[in-house]
Design a protein that fits this description.
This protein is mostly beta strands. It is built from 1 helix and 22 strands. A 6-stranded mixed β-sheet has the order 5-14-12-7-10-9. Strands 4-6-11-8 form a 4-stranded antiparallel β-sheet, with no helix packed on it. A 4-stranded mixed β-sheet has the order 18-15-22-20, with no helix packed on it.
């Protein structure tokens, strides 16, 4: 903006003339995300309790050197996905939008750096998440005082599937008492509960009534102490 002022003349108000000039905002090259570019990343099928990892390479060609990028999760159906800086470096959450999953320094050039995404399905079925990757608007604007045209963010869909490999523990009670452990609270009859594959379940028995004693476990447990079973298959325990 150019401002010129004409000196005051007696009886005549000062005249101000304003001349505005505009220039195009500096353009920022878009972020590139590999192996996908505006598509989806599939994590395959995992057993419940297991995880699958995928690396996403982030790069840009901004001539100013390394820039701060942010990863924002816009949806996650079951909190099934987590994110780590990988070969990138942490830029500090204060430099990115509040709530960003990652705030990272990414060098310029085709190589960039790679973040790691992990899928851990919490339950049987399909799960998905949506993320956006882009330059931190906070950092761009602080560097160029709002003279940079922000590029569109880059959207990526993540998907994974979990198969159920749960195994069933069937507890049969004989007599009076209480068996607890691993989420089981069984006082009589038969109690059935499922556990993820290879989970170790520890059960404790307490007899009820005056002068009663616990006589021991049978089937997949023996002895009179605590019962510990590994759920590598369906199990049966009698107390």
């Amino acid at each position: 903006m150019k401002l010129s002022v004409r000196p005051l003349v007696a009886g005549v108000a000062a005249i101000l003339s304003l001349a505005w000039s505009t220039s195009a905002l500096a353009a920022v090259p878009p972020v590139v995300v590999l192996p996908t570019d505006g598509s989806s990343v599939a994590f395959g099928t995992v057993n419940r309790g297991q995880s699958s990892n995928q690396s996403l390479t982030l790069s840009h060609s901004w001539s100013g050197g390394a820039m701060v990028l942010e990863v924002i999760e816009t949806s996650d159906s079951a909190n099934a996905f987590t994110y780590a800086v990988g070969t990138c470096t942490d830029a500090g959450a204060v430099n990115c939008t509040a709530g960003a999953k990652l705030c990272i320094n990414v060098p310029n050039g085709a190589g960039g750096c790679a973040i790691q995404t992990t899928y851990t399905g919490p339950s049987k079925g399909s799960h998905s998440a949506s993320i956006t990757v882009g330059f931190s608007s906070l950092m761009l604007r602080s560097q160029r005082e709002n003279e940079i045209a922000l590029p569109a963010t880059h959207a990526v869909t993540l998907s994974g599937k979990t198969r159920s490999t749960d195994k069933t523990l069937t507890l049969t009670m004989i007599g009076d008492g209480l068996v607890t452990g691993g989420g089981i609270f069984c006082g009589s009859g038969q109690c059935v509960q499922s556990f993820p594959l290879n989970t170790t379940v520890t059960l404790s028995a307490s007899p009820s009534g005056y002068n009663k004693v616990f006589t021991g476990w049978s089937e997949d447990c023996t002895g009179i102490g605590t019962c510990s079973v590994t759920m590598d298959s369906d199990k049966n325990v009698t107390a």
